[in-house]
Amino acid sequence: MISEEQKNKLRRRLAGFLIEEEPLALKTAFKIGGAAAFYLQPESLEELELALRTLAELELQFFTLGGGCNILVADAGVRDQVVIGLGKGFGDLEIVGADSWSVMLRAECGVSLSHMVKLSEVEGCGGLEKLAGIPGTVGGALAMNAGAYGVTIYDCLAALQVMEKKGLVWRSSSHFKPLYRDGGLAPGQVIVAAYFLLGRRDSGAITTAIAEVKELRRQRLPRGAHAGSVFKNPVGDFAGRLLEESGCKGMRCGGAYVSEEHANVIVADKGSRADEVMALMKNMQARVRDRYGVNLEPEIKIYS
Ligand SMILES: Cc1cc2nc3c(=O)[nH]c(=O)nc-3n(C[C@H](O)[C@H](O)[C@H](O)COP(=O)(O)OP(=O)(O)OC[C@H]3O[C@@H](n4cnc5c(N)ncnc54)[C@H](O)[C@@H]3O)c2cc1C
Fold first, then answer.
1. Which of 88, 105, 133 is the last residue of a domain?
2. Which of 66, 88, 110 is the last residue of a domain?
3. Contact present, 139 and 164 (Cβ < 8 Å)
4. Domain count, the chain
5. Nearby residues of 119 by Cβ (< 8 Å), 6 or more positions away
6. How far is CA 271 from CA 32, 255, 259, 268, 282, in A?
7. Domain limits for position 270
8. Is 299 marked active-site?
9. Are residues 119 and 215 in the same domain?
10. Within this chain, do residues 215 and 234 fall inside the same structural domain, yes or no?
11. Residue 3 annotated to the active site
12. Taking Cα atoms as reference points, which of 284, 294, 292 lies closest to residue 253?
């Protein structure tokens, strides 16, 4: 719970970029869930630094919202922690250096991953092709160590700029120990910008590779409001296979149902509730546990 004293201090110190009761549903891929009691939208590094210092002093938890593509917000909204949404001030994408062999690209956390992939295609630099079609921001992709078809975003990462309560710090890619769908950030760290070192590649070959990846994704993923894979793959297996063979396809709870195309995807119909998605997740986990003795771990992040 955020106490009245903490609320008043937040209002006094962060007035310029604090919004109360900001609806979150339309900021997420599921398009459901309640509002953030306290939503911060810093537009500069100075505001972000002030926000993190203040939250640390007040001993308040927070999470950073990127494109909301991997997030489920509870129906009652986010009441016990503060949400930080990084706005227009964090959307720069540029080539900062290039030679005949390589290109160094700088992307701020709010840049959409697909814009970065597009720029790499236009400029003829390879490495990001298999990430084509993954929705969300560069910050979210790094926090989640997003990836597909054997490649993750950390594979091309050279360095990161991270805001912590003590200020802005530089970190080389080797500083982090990314795991499967976990970028290895410590609580309280916000990714501000990232540098990617990409190799020169023929633009035509990149275009072809991207088109192939997008076509594969189009065939595998359903339409409708969803957040991609709900559960992580257990070591040596696929959550989708376990769920499918446990008979989960088509299972429904209210307006939320397991896709017929992909057993590891929950689609939320218009008007459905986050509670229904969570109940369905529990049922899916129970079926796989009963049949295979495997505990599926959620990939999506649930916030309340
Ligand atoms: C249709 C669809 C397909 C998908 N396919 C894939 C796929 O193939 N592979 C894959 O890996 N994922 C996939 N996803 C999941 C999702 O796209 C990725 O996890 C994506 O990288 C999330 O980025 P985001 O900006 O939306 O992050 P959000 O969902 O907003 O946040 C995800 C996590 O990252 C944290 N975060 C966000 N920004 C920052 C920041 N700047 N600093 C610190 N932490 C931050 C958040 O606090 C949260 O914990 C898919 C999702 C959808 C909807």
1. 88
2. 88
3. no
4. 3
5. 93, 95, 105
6. 8, 7, 17, 8, 20
7. 223-291
8. yes
9. yes
10. no
11. no
12. 284
State yes or no: pLDDT of 174 exceeds 90: no
CATH number (domain holding residue 206): 3.30.465.10
Q: The domain that contains 245 carries what CATH number?
A: 3.90.78.10
The Cα-based distances of 89 to 6, 95, 109 in angstroms read: 26, 18, 10
Nearest-angstrom CA–CA distance, 222 and 182:
24
The set of protein residues with a Cβ atom below 6 angstroms from ligand 1 is: 29, 63-71, 86, 109, 134-137, 139-141, 143-144, 146-148, 185, 190-191, 221, 226-228, 301
Q: Is residue 228 located within the same domain as residue 214? A: no
Model-level pTM greater than 0.90?
Answer: yes
* CB neighbourhood size of 287 (10 A): 18
Ligand 1 atom index nearest CA of 138: 25
Spatial contact of 142 and 171, defined as CB atoms under 8 Å apart: no
CA 256 to ligand 1 center in whole angstroms: 20
Q: Summarize pLDDT for 227-256 with one digit per residue, the tens.
A: 999 999 999 999 999 999 999 999 999 999
